[in-house]
Amino acid sequence: MWPRPAPPRTVTPHYGKKKKKKKTGTARRRPPRKRVQPPVLKTIPQFLPNEVLVLVASDIPDAVGDELAASLRLTKVETVRVALLEGAIIRFRYPDNRPLRDVIALLASDPRVSRAQPNNYYHPVDKAKKNRRSRKPGPQYSLGKLSVGAAHEISKGRNITVAVIDTGIDATHPALSKAIAGSFDAVGDGGKSAGRHGTAIAGLIAGQGRVQGVAPLSRLLAVRAFAMNRQYNKPLTSGMILLRALDWSFANKARIFNMSFTGPYDPLVKQALEAAYEKGVILVAAAGNGGPKAAPAYPAAYNNVIAITALDSKDRLYPQANRGSYLTAAAPGVDMLVPSLKKGYRYSSGTSLAAAQISGLIALLLERNPDATSEAIVDTIKKSARDLGPKGYDTQFGAGLADAYASLKFLSDSQ
User: How does pLDDT run across 283-311, given as a tens digit for each residue?
Assistant: First the structure.
Protein backbone atom coordinates (compact mmCIF):
# COMPACT_ATOMS: atom_id res chain seq x y z
CA MET A 1 0.00 0.00 0.00
CA TRP A 2 1.05 3.47 -0.70
CA PRO A 3 1.96 5.49 2.41
CA ARG A 4 -0.69 7.92 3.63
CA PRO A 5 0.27 11.57 2.87
CA ALA A 6 1.03 13.89 5.78
CA PRO A 7 -1.78 16.25 6.72
CA PRO A 8 -1.42 19.83 5.46
CA ARG A 9 0.37 22.25 7.78
CA THR A 10 -1.94 24.81 9.30
CA VAL A 11 -0.79 28.36 10.04
CA THR A 12 -2.52 30.18 12.84
CA PRO A 13 -2.97 33.87 12.00
CA HIS A 14 -1.32 36.33 14.44
CA TYR A 15 -3.59 39.16 15.47
CA GLY A 16 -1.24 40.90 17.93
CA LYS A 17 1.40 43.59 17.26
CA LYS A 18 4.33 42.64 15.13
CA LYS A 19 7.62 42.56 16.92
CA LYS A 20 10.00 45.26 15.80
CA LYS A 21 13.37 44.18 14.59
CA LYS A 22 16.20 45.45 16.69
CA LYS A 23 18.45 47.93 14.95
CA THR A 24 21.95 46.72 14.57
CA GLY A 25 25.07 48.85 14.67
CA THR A 26 25.46 48.46 10.94
CA ALA A 27 22.26 50.38 10.17
CA ARG A 28 22.83 53.53 8.14
CA ARG A 29 22.23 56.76 9.97
CA ARG A 30 21.19 60.00 8.35
CA PRO A 31 24.17 62.38 8.38
CA PRO A 32 23.67 65.60 10.36
CA ARG A 33 22.79 68.65 8.36
CA LYS A 34 25.69 70.95 7.71
CA ARG A 35 25.27 74.60 8.58
CA VAL A 36 25.56 76.67 5.46
CA GLN A 37 28.16 79.39 5.96
CA PRO A 38 27.94 82.60 3.96
CA PRO A 39 30.55 82.75 1.21
CA VAL A 40 33.73 84.68 2.01
CA LEU A 41 34.63 87.11 -0.74
CA LYS A 42 38.35 87.47 -1.45
CA THR A 43 38.49 90.73 -3.39
CA ILE A 44 37.74 93.81 -1.32
CA PRO A 45 36.21 96.58 -3.43
CA GLN A 46 37.58 100.11 -3.27
CA PHE A 47 34.49 101.54 -1.62
CA LEU A 48 31.25 100.57 0.11
CA PRO A 49 28.51 99.97 -2.47
CA ASN A 50 25.63 102.46 -2.69
CA GLU A 51 27.15 104.91 -0.20
CA VAL A 52 28.27 108.51 -0.65
CA LEU A 53 29.99 110.97 1.69
CA VAL A 54 29.25 114.67 1.44
CA LEU A 55 31.15 117.53 3.09
CA VAL A 56 29.22 120.68 3.93
CA ALA A 57 30.57 123.81 5.60
CA SER A 58 30.01 124.32 9.31
CA ASP A 59 27.59 127.21 8.69
CA ILE A 60 25.23 125.07 6.57
CA PRO A 61 22.00 124.23 8.48
CA ASP A 62 21.55 120.66 9.71
CA ALA A 63 18.38 120.34 7.63
CA VAL A 64 20.40 120.31 4.41
CA GLY A 65 20.97 116.56 4.75
CA ASP A 66 17.27 115.82 4.82
CA GLU A 67 16.66 118.19 1.92
CA LEU A 68 19.32 116.53 -0.23
CA ALA A 69 17.99 113.09 0.64
CA ALA A 70 14.43 114.02 -0.33
CA SER A 71 15.32 115.73 -3.60
CA LEU A 72 17.77 113.06 -4.82
CA ARG A 73 16.05 109.89 -3.54
CA LEU A 74 18.72 109.15 -0.93
CA THR A 75 18.65 107.92 2.66
CA LYS A 76 20.55 109.99 5.20
CA VAL A 77 22.41 107.59 7.50
CA GLU A 78 24.35 109.91 9.80
CA THR A 79 25.96 113.32 10.15
CA VAL A 80 29.31 113.82 11.91
CA ARG A 81 30.99 117.12 12.69
CA VAL A 82 34.70 117.00 11.80
CA ALA A 83 36.72 119.88 13.22
CA LEU A 84 39.73 119.08 11.02
CA LEU A 85 37.51 119.68 7.97
CA GLU A 86 35.76 122.71 9.48
CA GLY A 87 32.44 121.20 8.53
CA ALA A 88 30.21 118.15 8.71
CA ILE A 89 30.24 114.85 6.84
CA ILE A 90 26.86 113.45 5.81
CA ARG A 91 26.69 109.78 4.88
CA PHE A 92 24.01 108.82 2.37
CA ARG A 93 22.78 105.51 0.97
CA TYR A 94 20.78 104.99 -2.19
CA PRO A 95 18.74 101.80 -2.75
CA ASP A 96 18.64 101.72 -6.54
CA ASN A 97 21.12 100.79 -9.26
CA ARG A 98 22.16 104.28 -10.26
CA PRO A 99 25.88 104.52 -11.10
CA LEU A 100 27.85 105.96 -8.19
CA ARG A 101 29.43 108.62 -10.38
CA ASP A 102 25.98 109.92 -11.33
CA VAL A 103 24.91 110.24 -7.70
CA ILE A 104 28.18 112.01 -6.84
CA ALA A 105 27.74 114.39 -9.78
CA LEU A 106 24.22 115.31 -8.66
CA LEU A 107 25.38 116.02 -5.12
CA ALA A 108 28.46 117.95 -6.23
CA SER A 109 26.30 120.23 -8.38
CA ASP A 110 24.48 121.52 -5.28
CA PRO A 111 26.09 124.81 -4.12
CA ARG A 112 25.75 123.76 -0.47
CA VAL A 113 28.02 120.74 -1.02
CA SER A 114 31.78 121.30 -0.68
CA ARG A 115 32.72 117.78 -1.76
CA ALA A 116 31.04 114.47 -2.63
CA GLN A 117 32.88 111.15 -2.91
CA PRO A 118 32.65 107.38 -2.26
CA ASN A 119 32.92 105.93 1.24
CA ASN A 120 36.22 104.11 0.75
CA TYR A 121 37.42 100.90 2.39
CA TYR A 122 40.69 100.72 4.38
CA HIS A 123 42.42 97.70 5.86
CA PRO A 124 45.36 97.13 8.24
CA VAL A 125 48.59 96.09 6.59
CA ASP A 126 48.71 92.53 7.93
CA LYS A 127 48.38 88.89 6.91
CA ALA A 128 51.09 89.35 4.32
CA LYS A 129 52.93 86.39 2.85
CA LYS A 130 55.68 85.04 5.03
CA ASN A 131 59.25 85.84 4.05
CA ARG A 132 60.65 82.37 3.35
CA ARG A 133 64.23 83.59 3.00
CA SER A 134 64.55 84.57 6.65
CA ARG A 135 64.52 82.24 9.62
CA LYS A 136 63.31 83.75 12.86
CA PRO A 137 66.21 85.75 14.35
CA GLY A 138 66.59 86.86 17.96
CA PRO A 139 63.30 87.88 19.58
CA GLN A 140 63.95 91.63 19.25
CA TYR A 141 66.77 92.07 16.79
CA SER A 142 65.21 95.38 15.79
CA LEU A 143 66.37 97.11 18.99
CA GLY A 144 69.98 96.68 17.95
CA LYS A 145 69.31 97.61 14.34
CA LEU A 146 67.74 100.90 15.42
CA SER A 147 70.35 101.60 18.17
CA VAL A 148 67.52 101.79 20.69
CA GLY A 149 69.66 100.84 23.69
CA ALA A 150 71.98 103.80 23.21
CA ALA A 151 69.03 106.07 22.44
CA HIS A 152 67.34 105.15 25.74
CA GLU A 153 70.30 106.65 27.60
CA ILE A 154 69.03 109.99 26.24
CA SER A 155 65.27 109.63 25.75
CA LYS A 156 62.41 107.15 26.20
CA GLY A 157 59.61 109.26 24.73
CA ARG A 158 58.24 110.36 28.10
CA ASN A 159 54.75 111.91 27.94
CA ILE A 160 54.66 112.08 24.12
CA THR A 161 51.16 111.10 22.95
CA VAL A 162 50.86 108.70 20.02
CA ALA A 163 47.46 107.86 18.50
CA VAL A 164 47.39 104.23 17.37
CA ILE A 165 44.57 104.30 14.81
CA ASP A 166 43.99 100.62 14.29
CA THR A 167 41.96 97.60 15.39
CA GLY A 168 42.06 98.59 19.03
CA ILE A 169 44.53 97.51 21.70
CA ASP A 170 44.44 94.84 24.40
CA ALA A 171 45.03 97.09 27.40
CA THR A 172 45.18 94.06 29.73
CA HIS A 173 48.34 92.71 28.11
CA PRO A 174 51.33 92.81 30.52
CA ALA A 175 53.46 94.56 27.90
CA LEU A 176 50.94 97.39 27.64
CA SER A 177 49.53 97.73 31.15
CA LYS A 178 51.14 101.15 31.65
CA ALA A 179 50.98 102.43 28.07
CA ILE A 180 47.34 103.36 27.41
CA ALA A 181 46.44 106.96 28.24
CA GLY A 182 43.01 107.01 26.58
CA SER A 183 40.77 105.11 24.21
CA PHE A 184 38.02 105.75 21.69
CA ASP A 185 35.78 103.45 19.67
CA ALA A 186 35.27 105.18 16.33
CA VAL A 187 33.42 102.13 14.97
CA GLY A 188 30.70 102.32 17.59
CA ASP A 189 29.34 98.83 16.95
CA GLY A 190 29.75 97.49 20.46
CA GLY A 191 32.27 94.92 19.23
CA LYS A 192 35.49 93.72 20.81
CA SER A 193 37.72 96.62 21.76
CA ALA A 194 40.97 94.69 21.32
CA GLY A 195 42.52 93.41 18.12
CA ARG A 196 45.68 91.50 17.20
CA HIS A 197 46.99 94.10 14.79
CA GLY A 198 46.55 97.12 17.04
CA THR A 199 48.01 95.25 20.02
CA ALA A 200 51.12 94.38 17.99
CA ILE A 201 51.57 97.98 16.84
CA ALA A 202 51.17 99.31 20.37
CA GLY A 203 53.77 96.89 21.70
CA LEU A 204 56.42 98.00 19.23
CA ILE A 205 55.82 101.65 20.12
CA ALA A 206 55.48 101.55 23.91
CA GLY A 207 55.76 97.96 25.11
CA GLN A 208 57.58 96.96 28.27
CA GLY A 209 58.89 93.61 29.44
CA ARG A 210 59.28 90.79 26.94
CA VAL A 211 58.55 93.14 24.03
CA GLN A 212 60.39 96.41 24.54
CA GLY A 213 58.95 99.34 22.63
CA VAL A 214 61.10 102.01 21.02
CA ALA A 215 59.42 104.66 23.22
CA PRO A 216 58.42 102.77 26.40
CA LEU A 217 57.43 105.93 28.30
CA SER A 218 55.21 107.37 25.59
CA ARG A 219 51.43 107.65 26.06
CA LEU A 220 49.18 105.76 23.65
CA LEU A 221 45.69 106.64 22.52
CA ALA A 222 43.96 103.39 21.57
CA VAL A 223 41.70 104.45 18.70
CA ARG A 224 39.58 101.55 17.43
CA ALA A 225 38.79 102.31 13.81
CA PHE A 226 38.72 98.78 12.35
CA ALA A 227 36.31 95.89 12.95
CA MET A 228 36.05 92.38 11.53
CA ASN A 229 34.04 92.30 8.31
CA ARG A 230 32.40 88.86 8.05
CA GLN A 231 31.80 89.20 4.34
CA TYR A 232 35.54 89.45 3.64
CA ASN A 233 36.81 87.82 6.85
CA LYS A 234 39.17 90.75 7.45
CA PRO A 235 39.24 93.81 9.68
CA LEU A 236 38.13 96.82 7.64
CA THR A 237 37.07 100.40 8.12
CA SER A 238 35.47 103.10 6.01
CA GLY A 239 36.42 106.66 5.19
CA MET A 240 33.61 107.89 7.45
CA ILE A 241 34.86 105.99 10.49
CA LEU A 242 38.46 106.94 9.75
CA LEU A 243 37.60 110.65 9.67
CA ARG A 244 35.92 110.28 13.06
CA ALA A 245 39.07 108.55 14.41
CA LEU A 246 41.44 111.20 13.03
CA ASP A 247 39.35 114.02 14.43
CA TRP A 248 39.17 112.47 17.91
CA SER A 249 42.93 111.84 17.91
CA PHE A 250 43.61 115.46 17.07
CA ALA A 251 41.12 116.75 19.65
CA ASN A 252 42.87 114.65 22.31
CA LYS A 253 46.24 116.23 21.53
CA ALA A 254 48.09 113.37 19.85
CA ARG A 255 51.46 114.58 18.54
CA ILE A 256 51.90 111.52 16.33
CA PHE A 257 49.34 109.63 14.25
CA ASN A 258 50.45 106.03 13.65
CA MET A 259 48.59 104.80 10.56
CA SER A 260 49.54 101.18 9.87
CA PHE A 261 46.83 100.72 7.23
CA THR A 262 46.28 101.35 3.54
CA GLY A 263 43.49 102.36 1.20
CA PRO A 264 42.80 104.28 -2.01
CA TYR A 265 43.33 107.96 -2.70
CA ASP A 266 40.72 109.74 -0.62
CA PRO A 267 40.26 113.53 -0.92
CA LEU A 268 38.44 113.92 2.42
CA VAL A 269 41.00 111.91 4.40
CA LYS A 270 43.80 113.78 2.62
CA GLN A 271 42.22 117.11 3.56
CA ALA A 272 41.89 116.06 7.21
CA LEU A 273 45.52 114.90 7.36
CA GLU A 274 46.73 118.12 5.76
CA ALA A 275 44.85 120.08 8.42
CA ALA A 276 46.39 117.97 11.20
CA TYR A 277 49.86 118.43 9.70
CA GLU A 278 49.41 122.20 9.57
CA LYS A 279 48.50 122.13 13.26
CA GLY A 280 51.68 120.27 14.25
CA VAL A 281 50.73 116.59 14.10
CA ILE A 282 53.43 114.26 12.76
CA LEU A 283 51.96 111.66 10.41
CA VAL A 284 53.49 108.17 10.08
CA ALA A 285 52.14 105.44 7.78
CA ALA A 286 53.03 101.98 6.51
CA ALA A 287 54.32 101.92 2.93
CA GLY A 288 52.08 98.97 2.08
CA ASN A 289 52.47 95.22 1.51
CA GLY A 290 51.33 95.15 -2.11
CA GLY A 291 54.66 94.12 -3.64
CA PRO A 292 57.09 95.77 -6.08
CA LYS A 293 54.49 96.43 -8.78
CA ALA A 294 51.76 97.78 -6.52
CA ALA A 295 50.36 101.27 -6.95
CA PRO A 296 51.16 103.87 -4.26
CA ALA A 297 49.40 103.11 -0.97
CA TYR A 298 47.55 105.78 0.96
CA PRO A 299 47.82 107.53 3.37
CA ALA A 300 51.58 106.84 3.09
CA ALA A 301 51.79 108.37 -0.40
CA TYR A 302 50.27 111.74 0.59
CA ASN A 303 52.60 114.70 0.91
CA ASN A 304 53.77 115.38 4.48
CA VAL A 305 53.25 111.76 5.56
CA ILE A 306 56.32 109.80 6.71
CA ALA A 307 56.15 106.54 4.72
CA ILE A 308 58.07 103.59 6.16
CA THR A 309 59.08 100.32 4.51
CA ALA A 310 60.26 97.09 6.17
CA LEU A 311 63.56 95.19 6.38
CA ASP A 312 64.56 91.78 7.70
CA SER A 313 67.36 90.99 10.17
CA LYS A 314 69.94 91.12 7.36
CA ASP A 315 68.79 94.54 6.09
CA ARG A 316 67.09 93.02 3.07
CA LEU A 317 63.90 94.59 1.80
CA TYR A 318 60.66 92.86 2.76
CA PRO A 319 59.63 91.18 -0.55
CA GLN A 320 55.97 92.22 -0.27
CA ALA A 321 56.80 95.87 0.47
CA ASN A 322 55.61 98.58 -1.90
CA ARG A 323 58.20 100.56 -3.83
CA GLY A 324 57.99 104.20 -4.81
CA SER A 325 59.31 107.73 -4.59
CA TYR A 326 57.03 108.44 -1.63
CA LEU A 327 59.12 106.32 0.79
CA THR A 328 60.90 108.16 3.59
CA ALA A 329 63.02 105.50 5.29
CA ALA A 330 63.12 101.87 6.43
CA ALA A 331 62.96 99.97 9.73
CA PRO A 332 62.89 96.31 10.77
CA GLY A 333 59.57 94.61 10.06
CA VAL A 334 60.15 90.92 9.29
CA ASP A 335 59.74 88.07 11.79
CA MET A 336 59.09 90.48 14.64
CA LEU A 337 58.07 89.29 18.09
CA VAL A 338 54.93 91.23 19.05
CA PRO A 339 52.32 91.06 21.82
CA SER A 340 49.09 89.30 20.90
CA LEU A 341 45.69 88.71 22.48
CA LYS A 342 45.11 86.77 25.73
CA LYS A 343 48.48 87.91 27.10
CA GLY A 344 50.28 85.98 24.38
CA TYR A 345 53.02 86.73 21.86
CA ARG A 346 53.49 85.89 18.21
CA TYR A 347 55.75 86.59 15.24
CA SER A 348 54.57 88.88 12.48
CA SER A 349 55.88 90.69 9.41
CA GLY A 350 54.97 93.75 7.37
CA THR A 351 55.47 97.45 6.83
CA SER A 352 52.93 98.11 9.61
CA LEU A 353 55.48 96.98 12.17
CA ALA A 354 58.23 99.10 10.66
CA ALA A 355 56.01 102.19 10.77
CA ALA A 356 55.21 101.60 14.44
CA GLN A 357 58.88 101.66 15.39
CA ILE A 358 59.42 104.94 13.55
CA SER A 359 56.49 106.41 15.47
CA GLY A 360 58.37 105.37 18.61
CA LEU A 361 61.60 106.89 17.30
CA ILE A 362 59.82 110.19 16.65
CA ALA A 363 58.49 110.14 20.23
CA LEU A 364 62.12 109.97 21.41
CA LEU A 365 62.96 113.03 19.33
CA LEU A 366 59.93 114.99 20.56
CA GLU A 367 60.82 114.38 24.20
CA ARG A 368 64.15 116.09 23.56
CA ASN A 369 62.63 118.84 21.40
CA PRO A 370 58.84 119.15 21.83
CA ASP A 371 58.71 122.05 19.38
CA ALA A 372 60.30 120.15 16.50
CA THR A 373 58.31 120.45 13.29
CA SER A 374 57.47 117.59 10.97
CA GLU A 375 59.95 118.98 8.43
CA ALA A 376 62.72 118.93 11.04
CA ILE A 377 61.82 115.39 12.07
CA VAL A 378 61.89 114.13 8.48
CA ASP A 379 65.19 115.88 7.83
CA THR A 380 66.65 114.33 10.98
CA ILE A 381 65.54 110.79 10.10
CA LYS A 382 66.78 111.01 6.52
CA LYS A 383 70.17 112.54 7.28
CA SER A 384 70.93 110.14 10.13
CA ALA A 385 69.79 106.97 8.31
CA ARG A 386 72.25 104.34 7.10
CA ASP A 387 72.18 104.16 3.31
CA LEU A 388 71.07 100.85 1.79
CA GLY A 389 70.75 99.69 -1.81
CA PRO A 390 71.81 102.12 -4.55
CA LYS A 391 73.87 105.05 -3.28
CA GLY A 392 71.71 107.86 -1.95
CA TYR A 393 67.93 107.98 -1.87
CA ASP A 394 66.13 105.21 -3.79
CA THR A 395 62.60 103.91 -4.30
CA GLN A 396 63.19 100.67 -2.36
CA PHE A 397 64.71 101.80 0.94
CA GLY A 398 64.02 105.54 0.89
CA ALA A 399 66.86 107.22 2.77
CA GLY A 400 67.88 103.89 4.34
CA LEU A 401 67.71 102.24 7.76
CA ALA A 402 66.64 104.70 10.45
CA ASP A 403 68.80 105.02 13.58
CA ALA A 404 67.33 106.26 16.86
CA TYR A 405 70.62 107.21 18.52
CA ALA A 406 72.02 108.91 15.41
CA SER A 407 68.74 110.81 15.01
CA LEU A 408 68.89 112.11 18.59
CA LYS A 409 72.48 113.19 18.12
CA PHE A 410 71.71 114.91 14.81
CA LEU A 411 68.74 116.74 16.32
CA SER A 412 70.85 117.91 19.27
CA ASP A 413 73.67 119.12 17.04
CA SER A 414 71.29 121.01 14.74
CA GLN A 415 69.61 123.01 17.52
Answer: 999 999 999 999 999 999 999 999 999 99
- Give the list of residues 6+ apart from residue 195 with CB closer than 8 angstroms, or none: 166, 167, 168, 169, 170, 224, 226, 235, 341
The second-level CATH assignment, the architecture, of 47-113 is 2-Layer Sandwich (3.30)
pTM of the model: 0.88
**Which tens digits make up the pLDDT trace of 176-224?**
999 999 999 999 987 777 899 999 999 999 999 999 999 999 999 999 9
Amino acid at residue number 323 = R
What is the three-class DSSP state of 175? Answer: helix
Handedness of CA 380, 384, 390, 396 (dihedral sign): negative
Asked whether the domain spanning 124-414 has the same topology as the one spanning 47-113, the reply is: no
> So where are the chain's domains?
47-113, 124-414
Q: Would you name the residues annotated as active-site residues?
A: 166, 197, 352
Do residues 275 and 299 touch, judged by C-beta distance below 8 A?
Answer: no
To which CATH superfamily is domain 124-414 assigned?
A: Peptidase S8/S53 domain (3.40.50.200)
Return d(Cα 54, Cα 69) in angstroms, integer.
Answer: 11
DSSP string over 284-345: EEE--SS-TTPPPPBTTTSTTEEEEEEE-TTSPBPTT---STT--EEEE-SSEEEE-STT-E
The three-state secondary structure class of 185 is: strand
